[in-house]
Amino acid sequence: MQFDNYKKILPQKEPFMFIDGVTHFNKESKLLIAHKKFKNDEYFLRGHFPNDPLVPGVILIEAMSQSCILCGFYSNDAPLDDVSSFEHLVFGVKVKFRNKCFPEKEIELRSELIDVLQNVSIFKVKAIDTENNNIVASGEIKGVAKYKGSAEDLRRRQKNFSNHEQVSEHRRNGRTA
């Protein structure tokens, strides 16, 4: 599976995109692994803290949330042209910060889709300093991908997507559609 499309999938753009790349996704376990290296010259580090820079916790949460968006996208086999039709809303964050996150360290961002309840996706998340394998932060993020169009348009898209899935399933099983 190629992951070079992650910049098209994420609604966030520079300088607020906190994913440098995706290295792994397992469709069965719904586990995504991405990475980010926060540079010394990041705009938010100028004031947090000038003589001893530290990546703010809220930025780490945002990075983990962005990895959740990617995990949800890859988990659902959504077509790339559907990306701009949705807005992503995070409304539940339970994260514990276990170690400091310093700039110039490679951070592994793990997101695992563990459940979907009434359109609410629940992800288990972790940020790991790969240099020493320390968990920087871990917890749970809840969010929803909300469709921007009309209800009728959404029903039409769901029907088309369902038809696309049936054709793909037939092809996987060696049958023609």
Description of the structure:
The model is unreliable at 164-168 (pLDDT under 50). The chain starts with 5 loop residues before the first helix and ends in a 5-residue tail after the last helix. Strand 5 (120-129) and strand 6 (134-147) form a beta hairpin. The chain is α+β, with helices and mostly antiparallel strands. The protein is elongated and about 55 Å long. The protein has a single domain (6-148), classed as Hotdog Thioesterase (Thiol Ester Dehydrase, Chain A, Roll), CATH 3.10.129.10. A six-stranded antiparallel sheet has the order 1-2-4-5-6-3, covered by helices on one side. It contains three helices and six strands; from the N terminus they run H-E-E-H-E-E-E-E-H. 25% of the residues lie in helices and 34% in strands.
Topology:
Blueprint: H1 6-9, E1 21-26, E2 31-37, H2 57-75, E3 86-97, E4 106-117, E5 120-129, E6 134-147, H3 151-172
Antiparallel strand pairs: 1-2, 2-4, 3-6, 4-5, 5-6
